[in-house]
Amino acid sequence: MPLAAEMDRKAGDGCEGSTLAYMDESGERPHEPAGGAQFESDAPLALQMAGLADRYVDRGRARKVALDFSDASIDTADGIGLQLYESLTREVFGARLEERRKALAAELGAYFGETFIRNHGGHWGWVAASGSSVFGLRTDDGLNAFPLSKARKRLQRAENESLATLYGFLWRWPETVARRRSSSS
Predict the structure, then answer these.
(1) Chain centre distance of CA 40
(2) Fewer beta carbons within 10 Å, N or C terminal of the chain?
(3) What is the domain-level CATH number for residue 164?
(4) Closest among 116, 105, 107, 128 to 49, alpha carbons compared
(5) pLDDT tens profile 104-158
(6) What is the pLDDT of residues 8-27, one digit of tens each?
(7) What are the two backbone dihedrals, phi and then psi, of residue 142, each rounded to the nearest 5 degrees?
(8) Can you give the residue range of the structural domain that contains 109?
């Protein structure tokens, strides 16, 4: 099934009506204070992220590619995302194209985040930033990452670094800090 038709079929179970529908492209939830907290977990939205990640796994399966939420699968997920994004531009135009691109980026970003959380710990939620709150994930080591924004930028080719590069950075951060501490002692 062409990607455009697949996304039309799934349009009814997408982001509309959910908290995701109120985010702009950067993942920001404008004009909503963060409540003084640097990070606020969001369990309902975390469930939506799990659903979006599963939808991305289905996209892989439809292309006979296994996405198994392993660390190694991030590079494959990145490649599939780039291929799908390019194929969208050949199938649809205008507002429908932008809707589908946004949905694809959300699914890829959710897959990235869910994979990290399942393998290394962390939580989805809102990070306080410049008077607004931005949706992202916080690792158990206290790092904030913004997979939805990173995926969107990657698919638009606004960034050359793959998602695997960011994933590796987040994954290896604790050992990097430990190495720095031991070398400065």
Answers:
(1) 17
(2) C
(3) 1.20.120
(4) 107
(5) 999 999 999 999 999 999 999 999 877 888 999 999 988 899 999 999 999 999 8
(6) 443 333 444 444 444 444 44
(7) 90, 5
(8) 24-184
Residue at 12 is within a domain? no
Q: Is residue 3 part of a domain?
A: no
Take residue 96 and report the two structure tokens written for it.
């429908």
Q: What is the total count of domains within the chain? A: 1
Q: Average pLDDT of 174-180?
A: 65
Burial letters 72-106, b for 16+ CB under 10 A, else e:
ebbebbbebbbebbeebeeebeeeeeebbbbbbbb
In angstroms, the CA 162 to CA 68 distance is: 18
Residues forming a β-bridge with 29:
133
Distance from C-alpha of 84 to C-alpha of 54, rounded to nearest angstrom = 16
Extract the tokens encoding 81.
């995302």
Residue indicated by tokens 């994979």: 115
The string of DSSP codes covering 46-110 is HHHHHHHHHHHHHHHHHTT----S-TTHHHHHHHHHHHHHHHHHHH--HHHHHHHHHHHHHHHHH
